[in-house]
Amino acid sequence: MVVAFGSFPLDTIWNVSGLPDLPRTRLLADISLWSADLANLAAEIERVDPFADSFHLDVCDAHFAPSLLFFPDLVRALRPLTRRPLHVHLMVERPTALIADFIASGADAITVHAETGESEVEAAIQAIRRAGRSAGLALRLDTPVAAAQTYLDRIDALLLLGTELGVKGQDAAPEACARLAEAASMVGERRVLLIADGGIRSHTVPGLRQAGADVIVPGSLVFQSQNLVETFAWLRRL
User: Taking 90 as the threshold, does the pLDDT of residue 39 lie above it?
Assistant: First the structure.
């Protein structure tokens, strides 16, 4: 059984059956598999699983986002390899067409983009929550933070991109922290996780955390780390 973010006690989040409660008092790592060695995903998951709070899978359709990435059968193949939550980030024009397949494949949380349009987002959130999964809303870097306001009482997470959509290797934009701070103010006391995605580097994470990020989506920061114990000890002190 998957328990949605919004139903957690205040001190716990991403509480999936069989997993320990995760404290709200520390920064969480939703590790991006796009930055893993794609030829050895099983080994990569095994290597970082002891440190992960969840795994992040970007799905791109080469239309909404310029890349072409990840699909339901891959999620299905990865699902038995970890008990960590799998978070599917749909960077696609029509998320409603894919939600059922990703749920059937084992996704625990699904995030859709506000830019796909109000009717698409409304239908997607309903479908995700009907299935008992956690629903997230994502905003591109150029989308006003206020665009999420109308959805805050129906979502479990708000993801703010800090880089251009679907392009790897970028540093966080100068406005990324200010946007997170604006989102934190808008969310207020609601139990909505703030996720910082894009440009997650050792020199950007402290500022993103201070601005209000509950979760980061690290990729190369984790997979290129020479010492995962030290890397995660540092992250969890922030």
Answer: yes
